[in-house]
Amino acid sequence: MPRIGMNPARSQNTDYKPARITLAMLMHMPNNTGYFERRFEVMRTSLESFMAHTPKPYDLMVFDNHSSEEVVNYLKKLRDEKRIDYLILSSRNIGKLGALQIMFQAAPGEIIAYSDDDIFFLPGWLEKHLQILETYPKVGMVSGMYIRPH
Predict the structure, then answer these.
(1) How far apart are CA 121 and CA 42, in angstroms?
(2) Using DSSP, how many helices (H) and how many strands (E) does the chain show?
(3) Measured on CA atoms in the order 65, 66, 71, 77, is the torsion positive or negative?
(4) Comparing C-alpha atoms, which of 105, 26, 24, 19 is closest to residue 61?
(5) Mind listing the pLDDT tens digit for each residue in 78-137?
(6) Phi/psi-derived region of residue 82, left when phi > 0, alpha when psi is between -120 and 50, beta in every other case
(7) Longest dimension (CA), the chain
(8) Rounded distance, CA 99 to CA 102, Å?
């Protein structure tokens, strides 16, 4: 059956402009037993530190690689509270490389700050990475690792 007329949303303008930086985090927690027993708390701490210690503006993208219902519900709640801008829920685990391909193609920002879901972010982490990117414009990627003083 053919449609009649034109979609009224087609001619609407939007003020959407992506942030320069997309924070991208990959998650996978199929259950809360064995290896994954305390992963929900780790993931939540990682995500909260990611958001708390990153200066705005940014767009937050989370890719859930087929986690448990508890994790998915938590992520949907954050999305509904507008704390997550883009939430991608995979119906099956497509592996890390498959998830990264989707995330990096979908991220709207000029710069992608990627992390797994088990890192604690300290204040100033992004500023230091951006300083390197801006000082050396031909650099394609910056990676950091916190090393405790001895």
Answers:
(1) 12
(2) 4, 4
(3) positive
(4) 24
(5) 999 999 999 999 999 999 999 999 999 999 999 999 999 999 999 999 999 999 999 998
(6) left
(7) 72
(8) 5
Residue 35, SS3? helix
Give the residue ranges of DSSP H helices in the chain.
39-52, 69-80, 95-106, 125-135
Rounded distance, CA 91 to CA 93, Å?
A: 7
Q: Which two tokens stand for residue 100?
A: 């990264």
| pTM: predicted TM-score of the whole model, two decimal places | 0.88
For residue 148, which amino acid is it?
A: R
Instruction: Say if residue 123 is preceded by a cis peptide, omega within 30 of 0.
Output: no
Q: What is the DSSP letter of 8?
A: G
Grouping H, G, I as helix, E, B as strand and the rest as coil, residue 114 is strand
